[in-house]
Amino acid sequence: MSEQPLVIIDELKIDVRLTRAKRLPIVDTATFDVKRGEIIGLIGESGSGKTMLCRSLVGTLHRRGAYIASGKLVFDGIDLVAAKGAQWSEIRGKQIGYVPQSALAGPNPVMLIGAQIEEAILQDKNFPKSKVKERAIELLNIVQIRRPEVVMHQYQHELSGGMKQRVMIACAIAQQPQLIVADEPTTGLDVTVQAEIMRLLLSIRAEFNTSIILVSHDLPLVNQICDDIVVMHAGTTVEKIPSKDITHAKHPYTRALYDSRIDLVEPKGKLTTINGQPPTVGSWPAGCRFSEWCNFVRDECRVPQTMPIIPLGPDHYTTCIRYTELDK
Amino acid sequence: MKLKSMSQRIRAWIARPGGVGIVSGIFMMLTLMILGLLVPLFGNRDDAFVGKPFAPPSFQYPFGLDQLGRDVFSRVFNAVGVDLGVAFLGVTIPLAIGTIVGIFLGLNRNKYFLSVIGSIIDGINAFPLLIIAIAALTYLGPGLKSVVIILSLTNWARYARISRTKAVVVTQQNYIEAAKTLGYPKWRIVLKHIAPNVSSETIAYALSDFILVITVVAGLSFLGLAARPPAAEWGSMIADGRNFIGNAWWIVIFPGIALCWAAVSLSFIVEGLSRRDRGV
Amino acid sequence: MQKGNQLTRKIIGRFLRAISVAFWVMVLSFVMIRVAPGDPASARLGPGAEKAAIEVLRKQLHLGGNPITQFFSYVNELIHGNLGVSLQDGVKVVDIINRTLPITIYLILLSTLCALIVSIPIGTYIGWSGKGSLVYGFRGLTAIFLATPNFFIAMVGILFFSVRHNWAPVFGYDNSFPQNLHYLWLPVAVNTIILSSVISRVLFSSVSETKDEEFVETGIIRGVGRRRFFWFYILKPSLAPTVVLLSYMMGTMLGATVILETVFSLPGIGRELVGAVLTSDYPVVQGILLYFGVITVLLSFIGDLIAYLLDRRVKI
Prior knowledge:
Helix content of chain A: 25-40%
Shape of chain C: globular
Oligomer: heterotrimer
Strand order of the largest sheet of chain A: 6-7-8-3-9-10-12-11
Largest interface: B-C, 45 and 48 residues
Order of helices and strands of chain C: HHHHHHHHHHHH
Number of strands of chain A: 12
Structural class of chain A: alpha/beta
Radius of gyration of chain A: 20 Å
Strand content of chain C: under 5%
Helix content of chain C: over 70%
Distance between the termini of chain C: 15 Å
Structural class of chain C: mainly alpha
Shape of chain A: globular
Number of strands of chain C: 0
């Protein structure tokens, strides 16, 4: 059992329904595994489909009119592609925790912080009501919030951005999930706060052996705490690479991201070092989708094709057919 | 070829958000106005006893005859000019006054002056338009002329508030600061930058206010405080027919439909424009 | 600490505003009666009235003598709760208001209650589902209701329910509880149609905004139970604008009931006002106006307060 990865994503394709007849692919295709206790950094600019990939893991694709078109999505042996309402309510929130995008949204503005944490705790129907408060404070302590008793009686707008995100993390770990999906948990926060949140995620993993999928557009930041990095570009996972090998990336896009060491600026996604606009959803080039921006491009890259997944090691693959020539 | 591209362009314009609403609203309004222009000129039968009182709608009198044997059709369209005209004055005069007062207040820095004027504006706005109009009619005496005067005296406050808020926002914009540092004269800044910005906001409000004012004028006439019998006006026609609704529904229903028609066409235009503005 | 201060400051501010509205009503009615063409006293009593009678009336209306001292004596009387007496029958204005206001308030509250019951499910459902055709139909229909004057809806209602079917009386009133509903249901229904068009529209747009917020997503993922989700994640975050609008609409409702009471011959304060205007009964008009002003300011304050309690993001 422990051999089996916690999450298996295999050639996953997600489409969004535009009209009755029109479909638009937004993830095409994603492939990677998440092992137990592993932190995966999912990197990509906006429009690369990383958020949709997260939503497929928590079963809220339909809210944006999207759905899984094909491929495999397995969590802890459960087929999530076929999962229905009742099954989802057993999985999400309980086995998969979710930390939402951007600190600006954060907790529910019309509920006290305490009420929300207690709500998260009480999703376990058997949890003794008398111990809820105690547990809530315990959770707030885990996420290193000072004076949790005070924070319990506050609303979200009274908290700082970092505090809000800590609260969201506390809610996410209330049921001790096996997996936490954190969608851009630190975007828009101060650099020091970002580092604190990252450290917090690390300590949670250390304590509960939780797997974490950490979505970000900031490769250098995420690389410091992740085991593996998965890079997404134009709906495709172009490379999976252990973070210690990041300097030897085998996909030109990963290199561009890392070498520039510059944040891909959200949300408009202007690449500073990669010339031109990133490809927009629906107008992806045939063949390699990075070909138009790539310095190593050859004619064979532009041939319409699905780029092959070329394994380079146990946790390393690339989709660049010319990876051997990158270092020349 | 060129013609086709023109019609295509129009179609594309309609296809954008709110297009259907705007076009149908304008179409409805134009129909009403054209009939309101033509009926009084040709075939006007707004006299007593053109036929038997309470004659139901027929081919000859499509909207029937009222209790005095007057042709409801003619009266309904005779009233177009009165209703739309009074409402038009009742919107444009306050619009002009309110916009100017608002700009003036937005530029003024005298704290005491502002708070006094502000409290007057608040005081007026605390009342619904209908109530304040009714109250003021006590002193001026009923009549359409008084209604226009009262609307001018009271409704400006709503425009002034909108205009003032916008003027304050505009004056804080960078380009105004820049214009000031460049040493442009104040009147020029007001005319070139502030007035256009502010008036686009107040005119947008005026359009939706038009609907309100039409119903207020008709409402006042219905209460017998504005147009009074025998004047052809929708509100007073409805009030007139009220007592006979049991046996002659057409006296009430047709002026009512005309009134709705006018208000609904405007509201379609307003709705369409706001949707276009928001792009949904 | 700071929050409490803010709240008290707001309450004081609203109190001052109510006073200032009342003040301007006093000033305006005091000035208007002087500025209006002709002598109101002789105009009211008609030609051929005795000089002495006119003098008495002028004194009652604070018309003679120095305007400034007159104004102070007028304000002084008002502060002591003396709103004067009706010129028509000598009844105290306060008594007239006490007799007629409850009916109007009853009418307004009943319509508001009905409107909430109707519009909350409709607005929430359409906002949440966001279905194109449904939204289109909803917007069109409410736009028509909103543009239609209430007296016309009322007349159509009378035509159908009173004339054709005799389900609702056209006039009359009974003050005791279950009987009065017989007279009130049709006016309430007319009010409800208009009010629920407004409320459901605002609720619709705020629900469709709330729907896309991140915390709603989080709530779904957390697995919050259906009823709890509906209240804490959909309705409560969307209600604040609706409540603010509702309190504002209450003032407009006062205006609407003036007409409705006339249509249905209900002995409310609105019909009293119209009657007073038509007979130039100045003290009654002033008194009713004063009440209306203070009521509107108070209501808008209550609305803001409730909105704040529902959603602390609302600035108070």
